[in-house]
Amino acid sequence: MRSIGDEIKRAAAETFDSTCYIMGPKVAELEKAIAAYSGARFGVGVSSGTDALLISLMALEIKLGDLVVTTPYSFFATAGVIARLHATPVFVDIDPSTYNMDAAALRRWFADNPQQAKQVKAIIPVHLYGQCADMDPILALAQEYGVPVVEDAAQAIGATYPSAAGLKRAGSMGAAGCFSFFPSKNLGCAGDGGMVATNDEALAEKLVRLRNHGAQPKYYHSLIGGNFRLDALQAAILLVKFPHLESWHSQRRRNAEYYDANLNVRGIQTPAAVYGREYHIYNQYVVSVPEKRDEFREFLKKKEIGHEVYYPVPFHEQECFRYLGYRTGDFPHSERAARHTVALPIYPELAPEMQDYILEAIGEFYG
Q1: CB 258 within 8 Å of CB 352
Q2: Fewer beta carbons within 10 Å, N or C terminal of the chain?
Q3: What is the pTM (predicted TM-score) of this model?
Q4: CATH number at residue 234
C-alpha cells in the first residue's frame, strides 16, 4: 500500500490535529460509505469484527438457554461470541467445496432436532475466504422457523451473491452483517475495527446505543452495552483505502485466475468459485493438499514463501468447547479442511513471477 502511504499519513495527521479520537464525523462518513457499498441502509462502526458479531447478538437479546447455529470451521470469534453470552453454539458441517455452511446440513439439523429447534434464536452463516454462503436456502429456512440470520462477513466485504431476488452484497441479506477491518483484510485499518450493516432501523438504533454502554443521551443508560466504539483514526485510514477496494478485489481475482490456470499438480484442490470468480473477493486463496501438509509448510518456509492455515482446529475439537459433547468424526468435512488446507499469497501486489516461484515450489514438493 506504499502508493497511498502519504495520503494515509496526512489523514492520520488531520485526525490528531482535530483532537477527535473516538467516533465523530470520520466514523459517520465511513458508516454511510460502507452501508451504501454493501447495499444496506445503515452502518454502525464498532471496535472489531469480533465486537460486530457480539453486539449483533446482544441486540438480538441472545442469552442463557438460547441456541445459535453456525459451522465449526471459522475464526474463533464466530463461536466465541455465542459462548460469551452464555448461549450454546450448535454446529452443522461445511460444504467441502466452499468451506461455507452446508445449507442442506442445516435443514437436516432442524428436521432431526425439532425440540432443540425451538430454542434456536439465531443462525450465523460465515462467508469464508471471501465467498458468500448459499444464502437463499439458509434465509428461507430461517424465515420458516422465525429465526434471524447474522452474516459473518468479516472476510467478505464486497463479495456478491446471485440471489433469486437479484444480486446481493455480503452483509446485506440477514438481520445484520458483520465486517472486520483487521489489517490483513481486503479493506484493513491500522489496528482493530469493524462494522455492522443492517436494513433494520430499530436494530441500527439499538446497536448505536449498545456500542456506547447503552447510553442515550450521555450518562443515561436504557441498556447495558459495552465500549465497542470505532476510533476516528481507523475510520480516517479506511476512508483513504476504501476508494481502492474494487481495484484490489480485481487484482486478487487476477491472481486467483493465474493460480487456477497454472496450478496443475495432482491431488491439489484449488478454491471453488461456485457462483463465478467475479462474485469472490479472495480474502484468502486456500488450496487443499492431499497429504503431508505440515511437511509442505516447512518446505514453503525454507523457500521463504508466506502461507497460513485457516484454521487448524475446528471448534468442536477445541478444548474450551469440550462441554458441548461433540467428538472427532462428527463434522468430517470441517475436520478434513482443518488438516489439509493451506492459504497461499494472494495480495494485490503479487506479481506473476512471484506466483511462478510459488507454483514451482508446489510442483517440486508434490510433483
Answers
A1: yes
A2: C
A3: 0.94
A4: 3.40.640.10
